[in-house]
Amino acid sequence: MRVYSLKPFVPGTHDEPWARAAARQIGLEIEWVRLPTRNLVDRILDAIEAMDEPLTMISFIQLRELVRAVSVGSRVLLTGDGGDEVFLGYGSPDD
User: Distances from the Cα of 52 to the Cαs of 14, 48, 49, in angstroms?
Assistant: First the structure.
C-alpha cells in the first residue's frame, strides 16, 4: 500500500505535519506529489476538461494532479473529500 499527499508550496504548512504523523503512526512512507509550476495553464484546463459537471471546488485542480500521480500504479484512491458521507456523517447536532 502506498500513501500519497500533495506537497505544499511552503514546507511545514497546511496538513503536511499531520500527514507525516499519520503515515508514521501506521508505518507507511508518504510519496509526495508536487504541483507543477510549468504548463500550469494547461494543467488547469486539463482539470476543467476532466470534470463531468461544473464544480466550484478549487481543490479539484490539486486533486487532478494527485490522481494523475496515483494512477500510474494504482486504481483505487481514497481521499478525505466527502469522507463524512462515506462514514455516515458527523452525528446529530444534539450529540
Answer: 28, 9, 8
Give, for all 95 residues of the chain, the pLDDT tens digit. 778 888 776 666 667 788 888 889 999 888 888 877 788 888 888 888 888 877 777 777 888 888 888 888 777 777 666 556 556 666 665 65
Residue by residue, DSSP assigns the chain as --EEEEEPSSTT-TTHHHHHHHHHHHT-PEEEEEPPSTTHHHHHHHHHHH-SS----TTHHHHHHHHHHHTTT-S----STTHHHHTT-S--TT-
Task: Retrieve residue 30's grid coordinates.
Answer: 508518504
Distance CA 59, CA 78 (A): 15
In this prediction the pTM is 0.60
